[in-house]
UniProtKB/TrEMBL annotation:
Residues 26-75 form the PAS domain. PANTHER family: PROTEIN TWIN LOV 1. This is PAS domain-containing protein. The lineage of its organism: Bacteria, Pseudomonadati, Pseudomonadota, Alphaproteobacteria, Sphingomonadales. It holds the Pfam family PAS_9. It comes from Stakelama marina. Keywords: Chromophore, Flavoprotein, FMN.
Amino acid sequence: MQLPPSLLTYFEQSSVALSIADVGDDNPLLVVNARFEELTGYSRDEVVSRNCRFLQGEADDAEARSRIRQFLRSERQPNVRTTLVNFRKDGRPFVNLLYMSKLRMGGEVACIFASQFDVSRSNAEELEAYDTKLDHALKTMSPGIDDTGAILQGSLTMIANTAATVAQARLTLESVGPNGGREVREPLI
């Protein structure tokens, strides 16, 4: 898939971790930005063409995984926001506040736009700052996308209770423990 140059330029300059995945079989990553590399410890070359689920390791996030699958299957659901445990390349777990939205081109869903944020050790102010940055990123990116005929579906809605999200992330991380409380293995792809 050919992504618009204006989208790629903005994407790389964004101050939040971003990724774009294909809507085809198994939703392989097409591109990630430098913030994604910093957050996960993986280079672009290590993640492009892989499904992001490898970051989940063996963590038990059944509810989050179900919400993501529902979003990917639904024509009507424009976006999803959920927390799930991910693992950095070095095996350290973190709680990822994942936001995903569908990007349409020519009336068809062309790819999946996603943002990742580590809420493991965040406080309410950091989470609010992330929300502000992501909201700004979506608004700033939209005109450039619109010029190419692409439409980013849905809009970011602020978290109703930021403190509760941070508290839940901390509890989730504590329940996982170092390396997820189990050996972290790469899934077979």
